[in-house]
Hints:
Elements: E1 3-7, E2 10-13, E3 18-25, E4 34-39, E5 46-51, E6 57-59, E7 67-72, E8 77-82, E9 91-99, E10 102-105, E11 109-114
Amino acid sequence: QVQLVESGGGLVQAGGSLRLSCTASGSRFSINDMGWYRQAPGKGRELVALIARGGYTNYADSVKGRFTISRDNAKNTVYLQMNSLKPEDTAVYYCKADIVVREYWGQGTQVTVSS
């Protein structure tokens, strides 16, 4: 069974940085796209950043220039480096992995940015 485990969330002051990690395990197949999404209180889940297996990336406009997504295919791990954090970045961050035709989600990690 495929499992995604996230780490790296926490509390940080505005302007600070955090690095999230997410490792997938239990898959017999290669992972296609990997991504990070977030959900703030009272809002829907939104895309933060995506990265294809070959390295193509896509970012939400709100994080362009501040966040960087990367991955290590050998480790089945995706990272999200978050710099210049703002209070509006506060949310639960979820990673997602596309394997064959299914989507798999992590349990989420809380990121809180204080002003």
